[in-house]
Specification:
The structure is a single chain. The protein is mainly α and about 160 residues long. The protein has 3 domains: about 20-65; about 65-110; about 125-155. About 75% of the residues lie in helices and about 0% in strands. The chain contains 4 helices and no strands. The longest helix is centred in the first third of the chain and has 47 residues, at about 15-60. The radius of gyration is 31 Å and the shape is extended. The model has no long low-confidence stretch (mean pLDDT about 80).
Length: about 160
């Protein structure tokens, strides 16, 4: 059941002018936030463009494959994020339980991942999938080559 309020609580005590002024003040702050967001987006776009040019220049000058270099950057960023999450979680452990926490980490490190958990990191999975895709292409090309050789050997090849 909803509680019935006295009628005087359901009314606004502010005048229309006060309401309008309050709304305009908050909307002005909201507009300032939006302006800052746009300015930040422009600065970030400039930084990203500088990063893109730097990657292209380094890969060209050092003879590195750009896709592999970018994958390495992403993998390292992922590792830092993982380590930061672990540090944040460890920081929540009270000082009196840190030793127990560390002992538990070592004691149970041999346990397999939880059922349904993926033991591969995203980078490992991507590498495995890429290797499998390359192997499939290689197998198809070898089969096509073997078929062409069989045709040549049997004299069925016509030019």
């Amino acid at each position: 059941m909803t509680e019935q309020r006295p009628p005087e609580q359901l009314r606004n005590s502010a005048s229309d002018e006060d309401w309008l002024q309050a709304l305009e003040e908050v909307e002005a702050i909201t507009a300032e936030i939006d302006e800052e967001k746009e300015a930040s987006k422009a600065r970030i776009a400039t930084i990203k463009d500088r990063q893109k040019r730097k990657v292209e220049m380094l890969c060209r000058e050092l003879g590195m494959d750009k896709e592999v270099f970018k994958a390495m950057l992403a993998d390292r960023a992922e590792d830092r994020k993982y380590e930061a999450a672990k540090a944040k979680r460890a920081a929540k452990i009270p000082d009196s339980k840190v030793e127990l926490f560390l002992d538990s980490l070592n004691q149970f490190s041999w346990l397999p991942p939880a059922e349904g958990a993926d033991p591969e990191t995203p980078a490992e999975r991507a590498a495995r999938e890429r290797i499998e895709a390359i192997q499939k292409i290689t197998d198809e090309e070898q089969a096509a080559g073997a078929e062409a050789l069989d045709e040549l050997a049997s004299g069925e090849a016509v030019h």
